[in-house]
Specification:
By secondary structure, the protein is an all-alpha fold. The protein has four helices and no strands. It is 83% helix and 0% strand. It is elongated.
C-alpha cells in the first residue's frame, strides 16, 4: 500500500478526530455555562466543574490545533497546494485563531469579577458555532 492509498483513510481519520475534538469543546462549553450560571446566581463555588474546565481546556486547545495542522498537512500531501478547499481552510484558520485567543484570554481571568470573563464566554460560544460550520464544510468534502 503506497502513501497515496492512505489518503482516503487519513481524510476520514482527520474528520473523525476533529468531530471528537468538537464534542470535547461542546463538553467544555457545557462546563463553562454551568460554572457561569452558578456564579451569576451567587451560589457557593462549585469546585469540581471549575477544576475540570481549567484542567482540560489547555488539552482541548492542543488537540484543536493538532487537528488544524493535520488538515493542512493532509491537503498538501493530497493536492500539493493548500487552498484546495478554501472555505474549509478559512473556517479552520478562524477557528484556530479563536481557540488560541480564548486560551490567552483565559490566562487573564484572575477574579470573580474579571472583565475577561465575558469575552471568554462569547468566544467559547463562537468556537462551538464555528466547529459546527466547519464540520458541515468538512462533510461536504468527504461526501
Amino acid at each position: 500500500m503506497s502513501s497515496r492509498d492512505l489518503i482516503p483513510y487519513l481524510r476520514i481519520a482527520h474528520g473523525f478526530f476533529n468531530i471528537m475534538v468538537m464534542l470535547l469543546f461542546c463538553y467544555q462549553g457545557s462546563l463553562g455555562l454551568r460554572i457561569r450560571r452558578h456564579r451569576k446566581e451567587g451560589g457557593p463555588p462549585i469546585f469540581k466543574p471549575v477544576r475540570r474546565h481549567r484542567k482540560f481546556g489547555p488539552i482541548w486547545v492542543v488537540l484543536g490545533l493538532l487537528g488544524y495542522l493535520a488538515g493542512w498537512i493532509l491537503v498538501y500531501f493530497d493536492h500539493r497546494h493548500l487552498l484546495e478547499y478554501p472555505a474549509h481552510a478559512l473556517m479552520g484558520t478562524v477557528l484556530a485563531v479563536a481557540i488560541c485567543t480564548t486560551f490567552l484570554i483565559s490566562r487573564r481571568i484572575k477574579s470573580l469579577d474579571s472583565p475577561w470573563r465575558t469575552p471568554h464566554f462569547l468566544l467559547g460560544i463562537g468556537i462551538v458555532c464555528l466547529y459546527l460550520v466547519q464540520a458541515f464544510l468538512g462533510l461536504g468534502i468527504l461526501l
